[in-house]
Amino acid sequence: MTDKQIKDQAAIREIFTRWSKAARNKDLDGIMALYSDDICSYDAVGPLQFSGREDYRAHWDRCMAFDDEFIMEPQQPTIRVSGHLAVARFLIRCGMRKEDGTEQASWMRSSYHLEKQGGEWRIAHEHFSVPFDFENGAAQFGLQP
């Protein structure tokens, strides 16, 4: 691996650190600063896809309307970099924690496509998913890594 790839991987890891911290703090501007203008997201929460910053910002704003605390606990990402493009993947425990300490959270799968734009890495695509049971179609929220 080249020095440039190592530096790019470190910069991308920092994006995920900033992203999870901003989400936990319900810092909408901090979250949106990490996305490209043409972000496309396949979130675990409908609709089927979000296209562009305005659409995705509105989604995040709806998510932050709850008083509950966000749980955003990503595992260490696996990152591949080639030129101005990168992909990353990791499992993430996410959900909500109520004031009384009860949680509604589960492990999910996440994958990302990042692009270097103006010298800065930006998230261009993200995908969250929850596995489902093939036999009955039920989401498998109880799985552990």
From TrEMBL:
It comes from the Bacteria. Keywords: Isomerase. The keyword Magnesium does not apply. Gene3D superfamilies: 3.10.450.50. The keyword Metal-binding does not apply. Residues 12-132 form the SnoaL-like domain. GO terms for molecular function: isomerase activity. It holds the Pfam family SnoaL_3. NCBIfam families: SgcJ/EcaC family oxidoreductase (TIGR02246). This is Ketosteroid isomerase. It comes from Thalassospira xiamenensis.
